[in-house]
Structure prediction request, 136 residues.
Amino acid sequence: MKTKYRRTRRAVFNLTVHIVLVTKYRRKVIDAAMKTELERVFKSVLASWDSELIEFNCEADHAHLLVSFPPHKLLSSLIANLKATSSKTMWRKFEPKVSKFYSKRVFWTGAYFVASCGGVTIDVLKKYVQNQDSPS
Prediction:
């Protein structure tokens, strides 16, 4: 499979991360309708950040996002925006259900998981760099 690189005026890149967002107190609040709405919100937020939702899925207490984003965007700010916007949307559209789980207007825990993803392993990349022609 050929790697898909994205381009901006100053960069060619393939930055992909796996993000996991967990509901506050790990409450099992997410249902099918909420999952659909979360995916819509995440796609919308990411589009405004020149980013892309490659894959999305969730369980009742957490969500997995596979995201491609440009190098000029700050990942922590992007994640904060994803969490804030989706939390507000869940409260606005599903308040009767969400309010059964939370007394305050929260949805996600303050923490998150993020890991970089790539097309090759670190060992392959090390060998590639080591095998470059060095000036004599």
